[in-house]
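seq:
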Amino acid sequence: MFLEERQECILDMLARDGKVRVKELSEKFQVTEDCIRKDLGALEKRGKLKRTYGGAVVRRENLHILEVSKHRDTDVEAKRRIAQAAVRLIGEHDMVFLDISTSNLAIAELLVKMDREVKVVTNMIDILVVLAHNPKIQLVFAGGKINKSRDGFWGGMTLDFISRLKPDIAFVGAVGVDVKENSVSTYDIEDGINKAAIIRVSKRAYVVAEARKLSSDGNYNYVTLDTLSGIITDEEPAEDICKAAGKFGVEILLP
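struct:
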């Protein structure tokens, strides 16, 4: 097997399992452990993985896409699938909090078509606009300081309002979910403070995140996984991620 082929096989194994070990790779490819370490070093320089003691893991990404408008047309099908799983958790007459998240916008787009009486609280402008078309949905808007790039409100006034609520269920967005490190992250500190407050006051709270976000990071960890009711994503994560989630008692929900 050529070097390039071996390295591609290593990347395939990494994508499937989330991690690889030098000793196991050495035995599989019948080459020395030093040879495998050189392979991993070369792949790390190309940004394909992150080396660890005795092996390597998937390299987590931070894409720095800060504006909500730039998220709306990405992963559309994934968000639709997440929304389908989320609305099944909403009961008649529930108070639902939908925070600033394009996945939550997809939830709103499903809710507005349903014949269901619910109360929705949101701090995202687009969600308010969508749900205003259904008279059976009682809308409450959490105002405050506007952040135009995030299409919503946050700050002291918003936080004070959130702290007085007791939603039956909440769905919060994320930039990254690191199951192994027990953390969920976003880009903006104030956004993260709001999200943490929503989770804290809600009877049930779920992070909504496309599968790719399980290998991405933001800049601010706003909550630990073990404070959540679960994670809603669009496809089955790798086995090691599922095991790590189980360790923290976090349920992963799929469409």
